[in-house]
Specification:
Strand content: 15-25%
Radius of gyration: 28 Å
Number of strands: 16
Structural class: alpha+beta
Helix content: 25-40%
Distance between the termini: 45 Å
Oligomer: single chain
Shape: elongated
Number of helices: 15
Length: 419
């Protein structure tokens, strides 16, 4: 390590011995999303700070404590590294008028940033896959998102995830419930912790999401939102449950599930594991029908979810999901100037044939080169010396099978290896 320089705490390198797991995961994700007709969208890592304040909510942990915000001294703008992806996606949809062509099924993946205390499953730079369905009002799209997730857990080899669902109703029912919550918590004013006191008159619904053990008894006795729900939201929630049951999706109704972002309404859901300690939520989302208008677009319904890549990779390892690391088909060893020129031609010829080829670079005896060939995990070594150049052949040596090496024409190598 030069001059003691190292990565920022909570922002981790993914080295080659681990990155192949990420590549395997990403390949599954892209194929899975294609089967449901979702298209990729890519947004900047940095947005105007106001976008996140308006969308996530000013009285939330993310905005109050966790955002990486700075002043761009070239124009004095307040900018923020994105802490989540939905707001950026919605901003892009509005800016480029994507809903003009009709409803959109979109997805994105990449790093997000929150200034939290790093621990297992929680990092300051973390990675998410986000899925957003914009322009769809019915419970069928809510159900599709949940069914999609269930299929993905099978594809990833992750059993035992628990699904919790709830409904937050519409703005009017939440306003009624907000009044009842404030009245209730005011009666227990002396038992509220600092965060709850701060949120009492600004965002009392967030008190229900408190993880403080000393608050749980008070929270348990609080009025339930479902008692204040409007009829239309109740019908929507019942329809969602019907579809999930028809599709064989097991779920639990958790009436205290409120999610940590202010833009949610009606359906909310979480997929939860017991295998990652405190960081039990691996995927969460719901409906956010008011967000597009709130950010500045024409009113349109929307829903979506995000999942943590690091947490899902940890679960794949926890469940002994074997992922084979990619290895070269061939490692070419060579000795001498003529052999080197011929080795270059052989390497490009074999790559054109669809093989993964590593050409030895640097000096070294045949013996030392063969050791390096074996260390790469390559299936075969291709040996080129003066004899091979003169005969315009190559010597192929299997490294993983007890088969004798043989001299063959270069044109026969690809067919021989692909057998």
């Amino acid at each position: 390590m030069v001059n003691g320089v190292k990565a920022i705490r909570g922002m981790n390198d993914v080295l080659p011995d681990e990155s192949y797991r990420w590549i395997h995961f990403e390949q599954i994700i892209h194929q899975w999303l294609a089967t449901y007709g979702y298209r990729n969208i890519r947004t900047p890592l940095v947005e105007q700070t106001d976008l996140f304040i308006r969308s996530i909510g000013e009285v939330t942990d993310i905005v109050e404590k966790e955002m990486y915000t700075f002043i761009d001294h070239l124009n004095n703008d307040s900018l923020t590294l994105r802490p989540e992806g939905t707001a950026s996606c919605v901003r892009a949809v509005i800016e480029h008028n994507l809903l003009y062509a009709g409803p959109q099924r979109l997805y994105y993946s990449g790093p997000m940033f929150r200034h939290e205390r790093p621990q297992k499953g929680r990092y300051r730079q973390f990675h998410q896959v986000g899925v957003e369905a914009l322009g769809y009002a019915g419970p069928d799209i809510d159900a599709e998102l949940i069914v999609m997730c269930s299929r993905l857990w099978d594809l990833l080899g992750i059993p035992g995830l628990r699904l919790e669902i709830s409904t937050l109703g519409n703005a009017e029912s939440r306003a009624l419930h907000r009044t009842r919550l404030i009245k209730y918590f005011e009666q227990h004013h002396d038992k509220l912790d600092e965060d709850s006191l701060r949120r009492l008159h600004t965002n009392p619904l967030r008190i229900l999401d408190s993880k403080n053990p000393g608050m749980q008894e008070i929270i348990e006795g609080a009025p339930k939102l479902i008692d204040d729900l409007d009829e239309e939201s109740c019908i929507h929630f019942e329809s969602l449950q019907h579809i999930l049951r028809e599709q064989g999706i097991n779920f639990e109704i958790n009436l205290r599930l409120v999610r940590g972002l202010d833009y949610y309404n009606r359906t909310v859901f979480e997929w939860i594991t017991d295998k990652l300690g405190a960081q039990g939520t691996v995927c969460a989302g719901g409906r956010y029908d008011g967000l597009i208008e709130q950010v500045g677009g024409k009113s349109a319904p929307a829903c979506g979810f995000a999942m943590g890549i690091e947490r899902l990779l940890a679960l794949m390892q926890e469940n002994d999901k074997e992922i084979r690391q990619s290895v070269p088909d061939i490692y070419i060893v060579h000795q001498g100037e003529q052999a080197m020129d011929y080795a270059w031609k052989c390497a490009e010829f074999l790559r054109d044939a669809g093989l993964n080829v590593v050409l030895h670079c640097g000096a070294g005896s045949f013996k030392s080169q063969m050791k390096k060939a074996d260390a790469t995990g390559a299936r075969y070594a291709l040996i080129i010396g003066d004899d091979e150049v003169n005969a315009q052949e190559v010597t192929i040596k299997p490294l993983r099978e007890p088969i004798e090496q043989a001299s063959v024409k270069l044109t026969a190598v690809a067919e021989l290896i692909k057998k």
